[in-house]
Amino acid sequence: MALILTFLGKSASGCSTVAIATAKKLAASGSRVLLVSQDSTPSFDALLNMPAQSFPTEIEPNFELVNLKSSQLLSEIWTEFKDLEAKYLKFPTFKSIYGQELGILPGMDEALALNALRKYQEGGTYDVIIYDGNNTFHTLRMFGIPGILNWYLERFRQIFTESDLGKTLVPLIQPLISTILNTSWTLDDLDKVSSDNILQEGNVALKDSNRVAAYLITTEDKAAIATAKYFWGGAYQVGLSVKGVIINQSSELSVGKYFDFGQLESFSLPKKVGNNWKPLIEALPDFLDKSSTPLSINIDTATSQIKIFLPGFEKKQVKLTQSVSELTIEAGDQRRKIYLPNSLTGKVVKSAKFRNNYLVVSL
Questions:
Q1: pLDDT per position as a tens digit, 53-62
Q2: How wide is the angle at C-alpha 285 spanned by C-alphas 279 and 291, nearest 5°?
Q3: Against a cut of 0.85, is the pTM above it?
Q4: Ordered domains of the chain (ranges, CATH)
Q5: Residue 67: exposure state from Cβ atoms within 10 A (0-12, 13-18, ≥19)
Q6: Contact partners, residue 156, CB within 8 Å, separation at least 6
Q7: Residue 338 three-state SS
Q8: CA of 116: how far to CAs of 50, 53, 82, in Å?
Q9: Whole-angstrom distance, CA of residue 206 vs CA of residue 202
Q10: Residues 358, 331 contacting (CB under 8 angstroms)
């Protein structure tokens, strides 16, 4: 299974430059690398002195580059859907609608990119896949899709199964589902949907820093530092592990003086001069290091205490709400759902305090 790497930082902090240097470093060491860009501007073209294609193209030995085009990805998925429909249904409904006729709605870019990454990862062609998105906000939203969709599925599944509309529609859609999946299906089966599916697998993958990991990128600019810390907490809100911080265009002497990223290891990168990538490549961390990252959640049932790793935020920036069986943590622009074990279900939150980048909740 390929390792997926991504970089989080303020615009113009050098994420694309670091992504390219990382690809060069790993490819030179023997890893088969795919650098995935979703940047519609010609920035990669300028950095690599060659156009980025919409299909994987070899740049150097072991190093391929692809630029994702949302309109093309949508057309490919729509074609696959119509092929399945024609295969399983006697009278296909969407055969006269073509992917080229469909526009890209807000949010589609992230979903299409995540699906593309999944396909590349499962293809077995690459050891490392490096993702460089349009910006970090979109990247975090993309990696948060499995958790968010699982959340929506749970909410709407309950509404659907309990509503008169759901009970009315089931007799109509059951034959269709049975035909497509070649299996029997009832309303009660909806309760099993989220226990073993691609969304659940996505959540599991995100929690394993040896399968999906991120590094923060910043410069010596105060706004870039503050933004990197903000994205640090945002990453853990969507379940994405951060393994280190790369300080771009800096000197080693300035790292300890100006930066405070807690237990994160910092790496100083010199400024790139011309087309000379060697100094950057030599200064980069060992991205294949198997060291663990802090646990995002630690639930101690004996003390009725939950520790949530939430770096980069202050208590006043965090909103905590509770239902009978779950907690919702709202910080930055993300919401995170924490499901309580049976022994803590029904207990009321007594206190919530910040300690060493953890939100400690006592029930």
A1: 878 999 899 9
A2: 170
A3: no
A4: 1-293 (3.40.50.300), 297-362 (2.60.40.790)
A5: buried
A6: none
A7: strand
A8: 23, 15, 18
A9: 6
A10: no
What is the residue whose two structure tokens read 């207990």? 347
Q: Name the 3-class secondary structure at 187.
A: helix
CB 15 within 8 A of CB 216: no
DSSP per-residue letters across 254-266: HHHHH---TT-EE
Fill in the amino acid letter for 3: L
Whether the CA torsion 147, 150, 154, 160 is positive or negative: it is: positive
Q: Half-sphere exposure of residue 24, counting CA atoms within 13 Å on the CB side? A: 18
Query: What is the total residue count of the chain?
Result: 363
Q: What are phi and psi of 354, to 5 degrees?
A: -95, 130
Q: Which parts of the chain are beta strand (E)?
A: 3-9, 33-37, 57-60, 63-67, 128-132, 212-218, 242-247, 265-268, 297-300, 305-309, 318-322, 326-331, 334-339, 351-355, 358-362
**DSSP of 3-30, one letter per residue?**
EEEEEEE-TTSSHHHHHHHHHHHHHHTT
Residue 281 has phi, psi (to 5 degrees) of -60, -40
Of the chain, the end-to-end C-alpha distance in Å amounts to: 39
Crossing angle (nearest 10°) for helices 108-123 and 145-162: 110
Q: Among 108, 136, 145, which residue's Cα sits nearest to residue 238?
A: 145
- pLDDT tens for 273-321 read 888 899 999 999 999 988 777 778 889 899 999 999 888 888 888 888 8
Residues 216 and 140: their CA atoms lie apart, in Å, by 12
